[in-house]
């Protein structure tokens, strides 16, 4: 099967755009990626669109209505926080299968303010109940408290994740927030669900991100091979079997499964990765995912933040974009936005936040429900 390359990649600045709608935001992201590739919608053979909150609204077709209705097939995807990554993977599969040589993948969302996951679950079970809360802040508070129980991870260590990501965000012009936050400020912010304060929770924003995928042959034909980034691995998993009757899915297990498959597919290991954009929906999640992705041994995730190993310039930079905590988290766009960030570094185009010498990068998203996706990207040109 052919290699699949990213030949165009870009995103809107994440923020709040009440005067716009999903199609207009998505169209902006699509046009930015096409411009980066030097192509137009007339060159594209299929569109894969990720959009969660308006999943029934045929967002992909509505985007095409704005940028050019060429009659190409459109596939709309919704997969919780893994929505964008799922759309990208569908495009990757189509090129791998030989159906197309050139496709456009767009992730887009327009988020409201307030608590994510504050309504009843699809099965009608209330998220607030006698046994606790199923809201996202509460779920990831439980994740942090369990890690603290088992390994002694402290409130301050979780807060240091937010300090790091807010520090990184000041160098990212497309992040929602672009200012550092001191440890005292993070720890003293409004408590949402212990140990996550308000500054340790991801930001609900609007935004779009897009990539143009091409077969290696097509990239060479178009003269784009010199800037192309190869997708070494693309994985998507759900929860493996468990004898326990889980109320919420075990996102640790599906992330570890996705990571294992990705490393096997790429014939690489965690030690080969130069940078990571992972799903820091809450500060507690980032430390846990250090271990899930094999960046740290079991129980040693907090050591990475204490030693600043995951800062830009450290052993394994993580979320130099500012992460979901500071860049923002528009559900359908996040998975592709993570890809866009890594692509910019592998091309050496990340400006003041450039991870020096980056050649191989990993992206990760996880959607409660369950879906986990890991992509490994490589700069294949000299």
From TrEMBL:
Keyword match Transferase: yes
Annotated keywords: Lipid transport, Lipid-binding, Transferase, Transport
Signal peptide as annotated in the record: none
PANTHER family with a match to the protein in the record: ACETYL-COA C-ACETYLTRANSFERASE, NON-SPECIFIC LIPID-TRANSFER PROTEIN-LIKE 2
Domain Thiolase C-terminal per the UniProt entry, residue ranges: 254-379
GO biological process assignments: lipid transport
UniProt domain Thiolase N-terminal: residue ranges: 4-176
SUPFAM superfamilies: Thiolase-like
Source organism superkingdom: Bacteria
The protein's name: propanoyl-CoA C-acyltransferase
Pfam families with a match to the protein in the record: Thiolase_C_1, Thiolase_N
GO molecular function, a single term: acetyl-CoA C-acyltransferase activity
EC number: 2.3.1.176
Species this protein is from: Paraburkholderia elongata
């Amino acid at each position: 099967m052919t290699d699949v390359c990213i030949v165009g990649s870009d995103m809107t600045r994440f923020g709040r755009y009440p005067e716009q709608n999903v199609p207009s935001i998505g169209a902006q992201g699509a046009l930015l990626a096409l411009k980066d590739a030097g192509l137009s919608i007339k060159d594209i053979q299929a569109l894969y669109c990720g959009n969660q909150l308006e999943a029934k609204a045929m967002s992909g077709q509505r985007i095409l209505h704005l940028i050019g209705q060429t009659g190409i097939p459109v596939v709309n995807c919704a997969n919780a926080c893994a929505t964008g990554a799922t759309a990208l993977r569908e495009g990757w599969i189509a090129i791998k299968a030989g159906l197309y040589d050139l496709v456009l993948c767009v992730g887009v969302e327009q988020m409201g303010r307030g608590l994510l996951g504050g309504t009843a679950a699809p099965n009608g079970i209330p998220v607030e109940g006698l046994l606790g809360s199923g809201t996202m802040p509460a779920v990831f508070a439980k994740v942090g408290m369990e890690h603290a129980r088992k390994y002694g991870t402290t409130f301050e260590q979780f807060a240091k994740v937010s300090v790091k990501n807010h520090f990184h965000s000041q160098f990212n012009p497309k992040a929602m927030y672009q200012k550092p936050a001191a440890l005292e400020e993070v720890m003293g912010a409004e408590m949402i669900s212990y140990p996550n304060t308000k500054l340790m929770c991801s930001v609900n924003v609007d935004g779009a991100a897009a990539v143009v995928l091409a077969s290696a042959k097509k990239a060479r034909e178009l003269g784009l091979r010199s800037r192309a980034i190869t997708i070494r691995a693309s994985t998507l998993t759900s929860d493996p079997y468990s004898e326990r009757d889980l109320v919420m899915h075990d996102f640790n297990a599906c992330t570890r499964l996705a990571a294992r498959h990705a490393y096997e597919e790429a014939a690489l290991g965690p030690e080969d990765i130069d940078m990571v954009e992972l799903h820091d929906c809450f500060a507690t999640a980032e430390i846990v995912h250090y271990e899930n992705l094999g960046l740290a041994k079991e129980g040693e995730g907090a050591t990475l933040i204490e030693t600043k190993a995951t800062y830009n310039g450290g052993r394994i930079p993580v979320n130099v974009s500012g992460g979901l905590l500071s860049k923002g988290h528009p559900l359908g766009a996040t998975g592709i936005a993570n890809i866009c960030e890594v692509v910019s570094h592998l091309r050496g185009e990340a400006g003041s936040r450039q991870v020096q010498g980056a050649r191989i990068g990993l992206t990760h998203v996880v959607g409660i429900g369950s879906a986990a996706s890991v992509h490994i990207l490589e700069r294949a040109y000299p």
